[in-house]
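Contributing: when you submit paired examples, paste them exactly as shown. First protein:
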Amino acid sequence: MTERRRERPDDYFADWKEREALAEGMIPLIGKLYRTNNVKTYIYGKSLANLSVLDIMQAHRFVRQVEQNELSEFETFPVIQALATLDLGTAHIDAGRIAVAYEETGKPAGKSVEEFVRSQVAGLIGVSKEPVRPARDVVLYGFGRIGRLVARLLIEKAGGGDNLRLKAVVVRHGGAENDLVKRVSLLRRDSVHGPFNGTIRVDEDRQSFVANGVEVKVIYANSPAEVDYTKYGINDAILVDNTGKWRDTEGLSVHLGCPGISKVILTAPGKGDMKNIVHGVNSHEILPTDTIISAASCTTNAIAPPLKVLDDKFGVEGGHVETVHSYTNDQNLIDNYHKGDRRGRSAPLNMVISETGAAKAVGKVLPQLLGKLSGNAIRVPTPNVSLAILKLNLKTETTVEELNEFMRRVALHSPLRKQIDYSNSPEVVSSDFVGSRHACVFDSEATIVNGKSAVLYCWYDNEFGYSCQVHRILEQMAGVNYAVYPQD
C-alpha cells in the first residue's frame, strides 16, 4: 500500500462535522445493501452493518492507525454510494479496500468512482444466487455464556433471514415459575458484553422469545434423547452443544438420534479422533459428510493462527505457551471445596496456577507442531479477556521490526485477517479487547526478539472472539459461502 497523508484541516471541528455527515449518510445505504441484497460492507475487515455514526468513524480511524494511510469518509462514501446503485448478488464487500485501490490506481487512470467500483465487483452484478436456500435451522443446546453470545451473533447476522436461523435453545428447567423470563433477561443484559443490541420480548404462551423479529423456542429437557425437534418445526438442523458435558463422538451422537438434527458442533475441545477445527487454520478439513465437529478451545483458537503464520514464515522449532486467563465458572467465588487443584480458592481474589491443554491441542490443528510446545495457565481475577504469551524458538533469525511488520500485514491483508487483529498502541489493557471478533489480537508493542528467540503477546476475548469462531464454523457447515470483494 502507498502511504498517503491528508493535509491538516484548517478547522478540525468543521472537518469532523463533514466526515460525521458522510458517515451518517452511509447508514441507510449500508442498511439497503444488507437487507435488500444481503451484501455486507466492511472497512478493512470491520463490518459496517448496524453501526452508529461514531462506530463507522472509529472503523476509519483504525485504518489510519495501523495502515499508515489516511483513509477517510471522503473516500469511502462515494464507494458505498456507488455500490448501492448496483444490482448485486450476496457478498461481503470491503469498501475501504476498494476506496484505497481507487486512490492508488483508479483515480490516476482517470476513472470515475462509479466506473472503478463497477469494475471491482463486476462478477457480482446481476448475480442472484444466495449462500443457502432454504435457511438452515440452528439449535443451541445449553444457554450459558457461549450459548448466549452465539445467539446474539445469529440474531445479529440474520439479515434477510435466508442463511442461518436460530430456531430453539434447549435448557434444563431451573425450578423458578418465571424460568423463561429469567433466562431471557440474561440474554438482554450482560455484565461484560453490555445490553443486547435490539429488542427482545417474551411470549410465555408460545414458550419462546422474539429477538429482533427472530422467534426462538425454549425447550426444556433433561437429556438430548427427550427432544423431538420436528414437533417444533425444526428440520435438518445444526445443533451447537455448549454444555461441555459430552466431549467424544459417542456422547455427542445422542443428538444425532433426535429427529430434526443432522449435524453437531461442540464448543469445547473434542476427545479421541474427533476433528478439532480452528476456523481459518484447518477449516478446509471440514467435509460435507462430517456430522460432529469440535470448535476446540478459546485458547487453541487464539494461538493456532499466529503459530501457523509464524511457522510458515520463520519456522517454529519449539517453545512454551503461557495463558493468563480470566476466571471461569468452574472456579469458586469464595474459598470452598473443589475437586481440582487450587481452583477451590476464591477466583476474584487470587491468581491461580492452572493447566491448559491448548499447547498440546494445537498438534491436532497444526500437526507439524505436535510435541513441540509446552503449556500452562494462570487464572486471574478478571471476568473476561485473556492473554497468550508465546515463547518461541524460531528456525530463522529475525528482528522486532521484521516480525511486527509481518504480523501487521497478516492481520490486514492475509486470508487470516478475520482471525488475527493487530494493535500498535502502547497503552492498551485487557478491557480494551472486550467484544473483539478476532481469535486473537497481536500486541506489537510487547514483542521481544533476540535472534531466533521471540516472545509474542496475543490478547483474546475468550468469550466473544471464540463465539465468532464458532459462528464461522457454523456457517461453513451450513454451506454458507459468501463471495468476497475485492478479490485478492
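Second protein:
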Amino acid sequence: MLNTTKTLSPRRSGLAVIASLATLGTIAALAGCAPAGGDSDTVTITLSGPNQFTSDTKTFGPAWDDLISNFEKDNPDIEVKTNVLPLSSWSQTSAAQLTAGTAPELIFNQTTHSPDQVVSLDEALAEPNEFSDTGKPWIEDFNSKYFGGDDRLGQNTAGHYESIPFNLVSVGIYFNKDILDDAGVDVEDLATFDGFLDACREIKDAGHIPLATDNGNLPVGWASTALSSMLLVPETEAVNQFGADGEAGTSSPVTVKSVAHGYLTDEINMSKDPGFAAVLESLKKLYDECATPNWSGINSEGAFTGGTDFPGNKAAMAWGTNFASTQLDTVDFEYGTIPFPTLAKSDSDQATGEPAQFGVNNGGTAYMIPAYIKGKQLDAAITFLQYVSSPKVQTWLDETGGIPAVSALTAPPGLEAMNAGAWATLSLGGQNGGLWRGPKAVAAENTRTGYLLGTTSLEDELIKLNDNAVAWAKEQAVEAKWTEEWAQ
C-alpha cells in the first residue's frame, strides 16, 4: 500500500507538518570572519549558509531568529550573526572564502572542502555537552543510526568528525490534491513507476505541469538516489569492501573509500556495468514525461524544485525536503507527500521489484568550523554547535518540520511519508551520491543535462560520468592520504 503523508490543508502559521526545501536567499557574497562586538567581553561569531527554511534573504526565518535570541540569552557573552547565501552561488562563495581564509566561524558542511581545512571536533565530542543532562560524551547524545555509533557515521575521509547536524533530512514528492483531482489522478496511481508516468501524461493533458523541475542538481540527484536504490544493488554490493575504520570490511552505507576503490581499480565502470545505464534510461523517461517542459532554463531558487510552480498552484508535484512547510502556509490547495514510485521488473530488468529507498540521514542542516578559527571564536562556535544539538532546539524543530539528530528529542507529527517505511530506510548506497560521484569542479552542476535533453548519447554520457567519478576518486585518495597501492 502506498505510504503517503495525510493530505493536509494549508496553514498560516505554527507547526511544520510536512516539509520542503525553503527558498535560498538572493543576497550577494558575504564578508569574512566577524570581529568581536563593541563590548570586549562579548564574542561575535557569524554563521553563513543557504536558507533551507524560509524565503527570507536575511535570516533563516522567525523560528531561527527565536533560536538565536534564546541562545544569546543563555550565553550573554556570545553574539551570533546569520548571513544568508543564495542558492546559485553559496557553494562557490563558501569554498572560495574558506580557501582565502575569510570564511566566518560557522559554514554549511556541504561546502566543497578538504578535511584539513576544517576543525576536527573529535575532542569536543568526547566530552559532555554542557547543554545536555545525560552526562555522557556529546557524541553519545546523537541517534547512532545517523551520527556516530559503530559505523562512525558523519566522519570525513580522514577519520574525523568535522560538522554537527542540527537536524536530519529526508525528501519526498509533494502533491497538490486539487490538481490531481482535476486531472482524474488518484494518489494511489503514483505508487508504481509506470503509473506515475501515466499520471504525468494525464496531468499534462489537463493543462498542468506534472513534476516541477529545474536545472539544479537536486531534482536529478534525488531521483538518481531513488532509482539507484532499485537498479544499482549488485554494483553497490560489489564495492562494499571497506569498513568505517578504513580497514577491510563492510559498512552500511558504503564508505567513500569503498566507492573510490571501486573506480580506481575499475571494479566498477559506468560504461560497462548495466545498472548505470538503467538508472539514466529511467531518469530520462521521468524527465521526458513529467518534468517542466523548459526545466533546463529554470534556476534553482525556491522552496521546491522548479521554483515557484508548486506553491503557485501550477504544478501537480514537486520534490522537497522535510524542512519548512511554512512555504505553503498561505496556499489555497490541499497537499501531501509520497515516496518515489517503485520500479517493477517489467520497467527494467535491473530492478529488484522492491520499493525505492532514500532514507533519513544527517545530511540536513549541519555546520563546521574553518581550521583557522582559534581562541574565543573557536570556543564560542563549539558552544553554539552544542546548543543546537541539545534539548534547547525542540521548539525550533517543531516549527520547521525538523527530524532531530539527538536521541532525546522528538520529530513533529505528519512526516510519515518521509520518516517511515522503506523510503525512510537508508539504502546501501546512502544519500550522498552513492556511486554517482564527480570532482569538486562539477560538484554543483547537473552533469546529466546533455543526456536528458537528448544532445548527448547514453554511451557518451556514461563515459563522461565515469571519468568524473574516477577524477573524484583520485581527489579522495589524495585528501585522505590513503597509502594502499591502488590509491597512488
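If you have annotations for the second protein, write them as plain sentences, like these:
The two ends are 49 Å apart (CA to CA).
DSSP finds 14 helices and nine strands in the chain.
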